[in-house]
Amino acid sequence: MVSSEVIFGMAFFFQCAIGVAGNLLLLILYGYIAFKKPKEKKPMDLILAHLTLANMATLFTRGIPEIMFCFGMRNIFNDLGCKVVMYIYRISRGLSVCTTSLLSMFQAIIISPNNSVWARIKVKAPKYILHCFLFFCVTNALIYIRVIETTEAIKNDNISRYDYISHIFMVRAPNEKKSVAAFLFGMTLHDFIFHFLMGLSSTHMVLLLYRHSKQVQHIYSNTHSPRSFPEIKATQNILLLMSCFVLFYWINNCCTLYVTFHFEKEVEVETIAAFFCGCYPTLCPFLLIGNDSRIRKLHFILGKERRHLKNFINGLVNY
After folding, report:
1. Strand, helix or coil for residue 43
2. What is the pTM of this model?
3. What span, in angstroms and rounded, lies between the C-alpha atoms of 232 and 208?
4. Is the pLDDT of residue 162 over 50?
5. Of 5, 25, 28, 52, which is the most buried if we count CB atoms within 10 A?
6. What's 293's domain CATH number?
């Protein structure tokens, strides 16, 4: 009979393999569009590329340790290795929150009418995307620097002095209650602010879509609005992304809180929490690929070129 650890290990392996392959493919496609098809490049591509990098970092630093644990490879990392892996994981997870929130706010500004208060910001917004990335990286690096101080490799001889023990290979040593409270407050405030901004922008986009549907309802039978339909489709895609993000984020958080405050540590619950943590980075690239007309068009062109090349080679062989 196959053990539960092997089943979890296979699940994490396929999740990481599919997620990394999808994010890497999406990153290559955005790079191809940026350098080979510059006329089709959009400012939002930079945000999506940044989100893709954060997704890959999350999958590597969370999924691979879980795979190692499930297949019996334990206590491989020393203190330095544990600190690096946990720090990168926390930063990449924080960047995922920030970038998804930025994506929703950016799209909300783009679809706003030209006669609204967002008209001036709409023109200037693309110029500040890199500034936002720098701000996100610095703030997340500062917030989670405490992870470096409190993360150590598990040692059997002093395991009793830890408040929380991860089932993989990391522990968080207790420290002064004031500093712990400050860290938790900063982390919670960080996530709350960006989830709040995400919620505001989502509400704004939903209201705009509703008003647009009411306006188009009267003229849909006579004419179409070709400019608005692609924007609506992109907006719906981003709303779907945010819904998936919020769903998996809070499932992961609820499982983590349960494990943290439950007296008896349950490895299965920790593993499930880690699996849900990797669901959004895995599904994200496929949602984007399936809803981007440029990528579908690019796939059609590449397929057509491959057919021409195959016909050319067959002609040479027959000749």
Report:
1. coil
2. 0.81
3. 9
4. no
5. 52
6. 1.20.1070.10
